[in-house]
């Protein structure tokens, strides 16, 4: 059933799509924003430790629904299994208005300038990182994104103090809000870092430390990662750009809408999208432009499902690059047990970081930011933080948890992953979702050099904990399987050459005039930091360009 034509339809209301929609709406465009999930509130995600932490998936409490939304996961031995959203291997990021920005920890990092120049920086120094990898430079630089990093920091709202980081790229303005006061963990780790000659500082956070843009400051509860903020102090697209865009009268937000395909004409350009509403009715939304912002797995899936005579293998997939180079972040580090109590129950927990090991590590192509972690709720502590030598059940187990829960500090960080061509998203030939659409099939592996980098940074985390007074330290090491969790990226790579990339430097699909992919799919590499601020900066850049250069009715 066709609907009236609009200037643009944006698919996905996560970290990127609403920013593009807002830029277009402010320029007078008529925009429809389609979101597969609901518009949730904190009341939809109770402070229930078991519900939210029994699975490591950050966004699971906010969708997709358990039934009717499977994926297929293929392990390193070629064995495949159907996985549900709550199961390992699904690689979920929340399906809801705001996406992961509703429930994330909200670290707001700018990528390092070298993160955009990995081949130029390391090809001669670390040639093994380029063996069987697709490690490349981005077609844009840190300087190209710097004004948009600043725009995201001030418009969405970032707190913190990065003045103590000597390794960051240049910036024109400081962050708009100060950091939250330090926790006990922060004070302990700061002393240890300085003993080692490192450079600790307060983590930048998309979180109000003071009242900002009409919303209050963080109340410092322990329920942060995996939960919506009940006082609305955690800043995401759901409480910033979406309300602003709706207020123009130019944006219509439609929730619980699953897009089946991008509709294409005989010239290869998009004419709109076909989607199912919450009642399973099929609609056609004509549009002059289509913007895909579904996350790296679902954006690749949608392009692959959008086939025509000109694109028999899927839109943008003429050279078999859609779905390739799937990356996430290999999180490694260490846990330290202290004699004294280090837990003070002040959220969000994570507050102090070092960037000494992001680049310049001997013999390695990259590294990782290292930081302390968000508050570990009891179930999460037992399943992932505990001493591996401690008893796992019975009275001895309970005694260990009582003694150690408030005495352990984790330090970890996101390893700069080395992308590989065969870590990928394809369409499963047999399994379909509840609307009959072929589902994502995820397969691949971590490059051996990613494991090397993560082992090095895990050892550095252990050094930091020992210098801070830990009496026992154990490492968190990486596995070899494909990575693509809540930091999924890379499947619609940005580049200047259509033969080795999917979109151009402005996020337009090479093969067509009016389809854009704007999310972490376009990342050439995924940096050594949480990627959300980079996703937002790219969205501001692409949205402003489209609003200026595009055609509207």
Protein architecture, described:
The protein is an alpha/beta fold and 553 residues long. The protein is built from 11 helices and 18 strands. The strands form 3 sheets. Strands 1, 2, 7, 8, 9, 10 and 18 form a 7-stranded mixed beta sheet that branches. Strands 5-6-12-13-14-11-17 form a 7-stranded antiparallel beta sheet. The radius of gyration is 22 Å and the shape is globular. The two termini are 22 Å apart. Mean pLDDT is 95; it is low at 54-59.
| Global shape | globular
Question: Average pLDDT across residues?
Answer: 95
Computed over alpha carbons, the radius of gyration is 22 Å
Quick one: biggest sheet? Answer: 7 strands, mixed
Distance between the termini: 22 Å
SS class: alpha/beta
Low-confidence runs of at least 5 consecutive residues: 54-59
Helix proportion range: 10-25%
Beta-strand fraction estimate:
15-25%
Number of helices: 11
H and E order: EHEHEEHHEHEHEEEEHEEEHHEEEHEEH
Number of extended strands: 18
Give a quick set of tags describing it.
single chain; 18% strand; globular; 7-stranded mixed beta sheet; alpha/beta; 553 residues
Report a brief summary of the structure:
The chain is of the alpha/beta class.
Write the layout of secondary structure elements.
Blueprint: E1 6-11, H1 17-26, E2 31-34, H2 49-53, E3 71-74, E4 80-83, H3 118-122, H4 142-157, E5 159-161, H5 184-195, E6 201-205, H6 241-247, E7 251-254, E8 258-264, E9 270-276, E10 282-292, H7 296-305, E11 330-337, E12 352-354, E13 370-372, H8 378-385, H9 394-404, E14 408-415, E15 424-432, E16 438-443, H10 448-467, E17 472-476, E18 515-517, H11 532-549
Parallel strand pairs: 1-2, 1-10, 2-7, 3-16, 10-18
Antiparallel strand pairs: 3-4, 5-6, 6-12, 8-9, 9-10, 11-14, 11-17, 12-13, 13-14, 15-16
Helix pairs in contact: 1-6, 1-11, 4-11, 5-10
